[in-house]
Predict the 3D structure of the following.
Amino acid sequence: MATVTFRDETATGKRIAEWEATGLPDRMTVRELIGLRVHEEVTRHNTRPGDHFNGLVRPEGAEQTPHGYHFPRPRLIDAARQTEAAEHAFATNGFFILSDDRQLEALDDPVDLTTTPVLIFIKLIALVGG
């Protein structure tokens, strides 16, 4: 069984957040790892729903803020929809994942978790301007 650290960083390498998952199989696909991460985020939020969510992708109906996503009023988040949004964001370069300094490129690529103790998620922010 493997233990993996999920870490969020800025494009400049600044650590934003980090958490660990234990008891994982030795190999998982990128899709499964994204699903695991999103499910954990949604479970944490739905346990104590509030008007703020700090997760990988913006939930439907939320406004992006410098410290996560804000809802007009507290509500539960649908894990399946959030997972679909995260998979789409990954496929369209909304964020990328580094594993041992290598960028993971496809949702169905396998990841050997026995040699990859840290997965780094870097969100790409759309620039505004003309």
